[in-house]
Design brief:
alpha/beta
Length: 107
């Protein structure tokens, strides 16, 4: 996973390709489990990678995009949230969601 830093956020907002962003907070146990599931997907598909955003450092983004809770997995293009997932039920479900997103966008 690639951590998003405040200074690089503005550049990512104008990224022409779709990005998959994992939104978390450091002390959230559910976020830690979700991150493990995403790590499995990254290992299985070396072409798939995720950006990791600490929600605590991006309150404006959270408010503007009405992010309801963490963990969250977001499909973002040109700084706009196109799709989102809050229920990280299983690696299989995450894989299916990502495959659906790939068909909608080029990620």
């Amino acid at each position: 996973m690639i951590d998003i830093k405040k200074e690089q956020w503005k550049n990512l907002l104008h990224h022409k390709e779709s990005l998959v962003i994992f939104v978390h907070t450091p002390f959230c146990a559910t976020c830690q489990l979700a991150e493990r599931m995403l790590a499995i997907l990254e290992e299985a598909d070396q072409a798939q990678f995720f950006y990791r955003m600490n929600a605590s450092f991006f309150p404006e983004f959270m408010k503007e995009n009405k992010i309801q809770s963490v963990p969250a997995l977001l499909l973002v293009k040109d700084g706009v949230v196109i799709d989102q997932l809050y229920a990280f039920e299983s690696v299989t479900k995450l894989h299916a969601v990502l495959e659906g997103w790939k068909q909608k966008q080029s990620i």
